[in-house]
Amino acid sequence: MSEQIVILDFGSQYTQVIARRIRECKVFCSIQPFDTPARELAALRPKGLILSGGPASVYAPKAPLPDPGIFKLGAPLLGICYGVQLFGHFLGGKVEPGQKREYGKGALTVKDATCPLFQGLPESFQVWNSHGDKLTRQPRGFRPVAITENSEYAVIENRAKRFYGLQFHPEVVHTPRGKEILANFVHGICGCGSEWTMRHFIDQAVEEIRAQVGHEHVILGLSGGVDSSVAAMLLHKAIGEQLTCIFVNNGLLRAREAESVQEVFGRNFQIKLRYEDATELFLRRLRKVTDPEKKRKIIGKTFIEVFQAATRRVGHAKFLAQGTLYPDVIESVPIAGNPAALIKSHHNVGGLPKNMKFKLVEPLKGLFKDEVRRVGEELGLPKELVWRQPFPGPGLAVRILGEVTPARCEILRNADWIVVEEMKQSGWYYKIWQSFAVLLPVRSVGVMGDERTYDYTIALRMVDSQDGMTADWVKLPYELLEKISNRIINEVKGVNRVCLDISSKPPATIEWE
Ligand code: XMP
Fold first, then answer.
1. Cα–Cα distance measured from residue 298 to residue 11, given in angstroms and rounded to the nearest whole number
2. Mind giving me the DSSP string for 291-332?
3. CA 358 to ligand 1 centroid distance, Å
4. pLDDT tens readout for residues 470-511
5. pLDDT tens-digit profile of 245-274?
6. What number does the ligand 1 atom closest to the CA of 508 have?
7. Looking at 89, 169, 187, 236, which residue is catalytic?
8. Which of 175, 181, 168 is nearest to 25 (CA)?
9. Which residue, 123, 239, 337, 437, is most buried by CB atoms nearer than 10 A?
10. Which residues contact 512 (CB under 8 A, 6 or more apart)?
11. Which overall architecture, per CATH, does domain 405-500 show?
C-alpha cells in the first residue's frame, strides 16, 4: 500500500482541492468522513492527517466533531480553518465568534522561521481567509508562529507532537505559496516521499485489476468520453483479450464519432469492441416527443435495454467495468451549505440498473478528473480524446429543442462539426469548458443569392466553468464568431441564421434542452 495522507472532511467546499494539492506533491491522499473512528484511521496507517475546513461552528449543537482518539494516533496533524478551531475545542484552547468575519486576502507575517511549515518561504506572503470564528486562546502545548492583521493565531504549532494549525486556506489559488506549505507538511513533517505518480498508479491498478478479475471476462460500456476511454485502456493493459467493450450508437452522436471510436480502440489499440448501432430504435422512440424530461427518460431506458441485450450476446462476462471517479464515491458531509452534496445529485442519469448480475470493476474510482486525463496521456490515448470537452449522455437530443428528427440531427451535426473545427483551429477549444451548437426549431426568412429562404436558427453556446455547476459565457473574438457564423450559414443546408447565447449559469443552464 502506498504511503498516504488522510483528510478528514468536515464539509469544506475545498476538501477535494486539498486532496488534489497533496497528490500534486506526488503523495497519495484519501478523504474520509469526519467521524471515522480513530482505530479505522489507524488501520490506514496514515503518514499524516489533515482536518479540513467546514461551514459549521465548533460550538454549534450539531457541529461535526472527530473521534478524540485522532489526537493520540501519533501521526502529524494539520488543521485548516475549522480544523484549527477543533484543536482549540479539544486541546484546551478557546474559540469565539470573530468580531468581524475575516474573508478574502490577508498578509501573513512569519514570527518563527524555524517552523518547518515555512521552509523556503519568505517572511511575509499573501494568504486567503474565509472564517467567522477564531481562536482567542491557544490550545495547550501550542504557540503562534505567524500572524495576520486580524489574528494573532494565524498559524500555530505544537512542534513536539507535530500538530500544526492554519487559520487560512493554503489549498486555494489565492494563497499563492500555499502549495509549498502543504508540501512542507507532507514531505518535511510527515516524511512522505514522492512516489505517487501516474506511472505508479497504472502499475498498481494493473496488478489490482488482474487480482480482482483472474481469468474471468469483463464488459465495459465505452461512450467515447474521457472516463470510459481511460478505463478501457487500463483494463486492456491489464487483461487484454478478456475485455470486451460495447459502444452504443444512439443516433445522437456527433459527426464521425462512431467511426473515430472504432478507429482508435478497435483498429489502433486492438481492443475487442462490439459496435451496436441502435440509431433507428432511439430515433423511432423519440418521434413526436418534445418534452425534455421525456426525451431523457426514453434515451436512458433505451440505452439500458440495448446495452443489456449486447451484454447477453457477449455472454460469458462476470464483471462490468465502469469509469467511476473519486468525486462520485466520496461520501459528502451532510452539512447545510456543503455544495458537494448538490453536485453529487446532478445529472446522475445514464447509470445502469443495480440488478445487472455483474461484479463491478472500477479502476478509476480513486482518481480526480485531471489525474484520469494524465493516466490517459500516459497510456497513449490521443490528445483530442483526453482533452475533449464534456458531451452529455443524451447527446444531440438535449441540443435540439422540440422534436428530434433524423433531419434535424443531420443539420445540428453539420453545424457542430464546424464549431468544433474552428474552435480547435483557433486554439480556443482546449481553453474553455464547452463550445457547441444548438438547433432552434423556429424558422425565419433570409435571402440566399436571389432566393428567399425559410430556415432554422443555430445558437452558439461557448462557456467557461470549473465543474459545470456555474458557468460564464466566453467573450470570443468577433473574427472567430464571424467565421463560425459564415461557415454555418454557407455550408449547412437548412440554417440561415446564427445567434450567440450570452447567458451565464445560473440562471441559465449550459445545455438548452
Ligand atoms: P447544465 O445544462 O445542467 O449542464 O448546465 C451542466 C453540465 O452537465 C452536462 N450535462 C450532462 N451530462 N448527462 C451527462 O453526462 C446528461 O444528461 C447531461 N446533461 C447536461 C452539460 O453538458 C454540462 O457540462
1. 36
2. -HHHHHHHHHHHHHHHHHHHHHHH--EEEEE----HHHHSPP
3. 27
4. 999 999 999 999 999 999 999 999 999 999 999 999 999 999
5. 999 999 999 999 999 999 999 999 999 999
6. 5
7. 169
8. 181
9. 437
10. 398, 399, 401, 438, 459, 461, 501
11. 2-Layer Sandwich (3.30)
Residue nearest to atom 8 of ligand 1 (CA): 468
- 411 C-beta neighbours (distance < 10 Å), count: 22
The CATH number given to 198-386 is 3.40.50.620
Question: What are the phi and psi torsion angles at 286 (to 5°)?
Answer: -85, -5
- Residue 371 alpha carbon to ligand 1 centre in Å: 21
- The residue type found at 298 is I
Backbone φ and ψ of 49, nearest 5°: -120, 145
* Per-residue pLDDT tens over the stretch 137-164: 999 999 999 999 888 999 999 999 999 9
- Residues near ligand 1 with C-beta < 6 Å? 347, 349-350, 390, 392-394, 398, 434, 468, 505, 509-511
Which whole-number Å values give the CA distances from 421 to 281, 482, 484, in the listed order? 30, 14, 9
* Residue found under cell 455544495: 339
Q: Which helix (H) or strand (E) holds 163?
A: strand 163-166
- Residue nearest ligand 1's atom 12 by CA: 392
Whether 171 sits among the annotated catalytic residues: the reply is yes
Atom number of ligand 1 nearest to Cα 391: 22
